[in-house]
UniProtKB/TrEMBL annotation:
<dbReference type="GO" id="GO:0016787">
    <property type="term" value="F:hydrolase activity"/>
</dbReference>
<feature type="compositionally biased region" description="Basic and acidic residues">
    <location>
        <begin position="124"/>
        <end position="158"/>
    </location>
</feature>
<dbReference type="InterPro" id="IPR000048">
    <property type="entry name" value="IQ_motif_EF-hand-BS"/>
</dbReference>
<protein>
    <submittedName>
        <fullName>3-hydroxyisobutyryl-CoA hydrolase</fullName>
    </submittedName>
</protein>
<keyword id="KW-0378">Hydrolase</keyword>
<feature type="region of interest" description="Disordered">
    <location>
        <begin position="124"/>
        <end position="168"/>
    </location>
</feature>
<dbReference type="Pfam" id="PF00612">
    <property type="entry name" value="IQ"/>
</dbReference>
Amino acid sequence: TPSYRADCGTFTRQARHIVAPQVGLNAMVSALGGLKAPWEVSATQKFTPRLSHPPETHRPFSVGRSRAQNMLAVALATQDDQAKVRRLEQALETPCVRYERAQTPRLMQVARDATVLRGELTRKDRKKAWQDKQEKEKKEEKEEKEERKKKSEAHENPKPPPSPEDLLKEEEAAALRIQSLYRGQKDRQTVKAMAAQEAQAATRIQSIYRGQVEEPGRDLAGNGPIRVVVLSPQAREWEEFRCSAVFLRDSVNQGATNKAYMMHKDLLFRRLGGDGFSKLLDEAEVITKKFQARIKKARGFFQTSNGIIWYVNPEGEVKGLTSDGNKIRDRIQVTDDDALQIGPFRLDEDRPCSCIHWIRKDDPEKTWNWSRDNTLRSRVRLGTGERA
């Protein structure tokens, strides 16, 4: 009947759509009609509301999905096999990629590629390990053959017994080695003892000759100049309450620190006035320059035979550094008879050599020889306190 044919025609069209269905995002959006898309519906809404505007035909942008796709692209573009496998495994473990249905075929292909590549790397590693083992066995076998060959040759051709001359030479060589070891150890002990003795002597010199400080309290009445300025409270008391005039020696000697020195200058300026203070400083500068010119021969970097490095600056300060890293501090003085002196040692200026010789006052046979040392290594050691 016509109605039957119409039904058949309608069924035929419906069957054609079933065999070749319309799939994809656009088909899903058109099938929704007036409903919102699933990604536009919040989880708190019980029913799917109607659309107030046509639905979007594209999915919203997802940062995680974009990052995962970039990870896959970077992993597939990697040239190194081991790095490629590691990056592929990291990309496949990303949840955004794992649960993305649109990426399922690509992920399956990537997983297969990663499995194949991992198998190839495993086979390469096993092959390399097997080759290394074979090479090691061949090397050991070759060494064993050479050793057996040497033993057989030594058994077939035994060495003749050593002659008395050879035995005597060996004994002499052994005795020489023993003597050199004993002498070297003895010399090292001597050098260490000399260094310790010199360090102790320098300490005694500092304590004896640098420790003789006149008390400023007994000179408040003005009986002569105060030669050494000590603690700041005592120096301030002397500067403020001393009745006599200020001597030139008082302005030449400095305090132990820059702070004390600036305090002395300020007190002297207040007491003497601008003109008197300037005149005193000019006279002190003349004495300082004369002193620097007098000790010119003893200035510079030096080294002694026991490894101690010495440096004498233009102000006459002596800085020493032992081989153990201990520091020595002293000062060169100009005596009343115009001689340079460090503690009990006086400089022998009659010798024309480049070295300088210090002679003990009470025992002229004891000398202290310094040789010039302008190497950068010595200057760095003296500045940093590094051990030899």
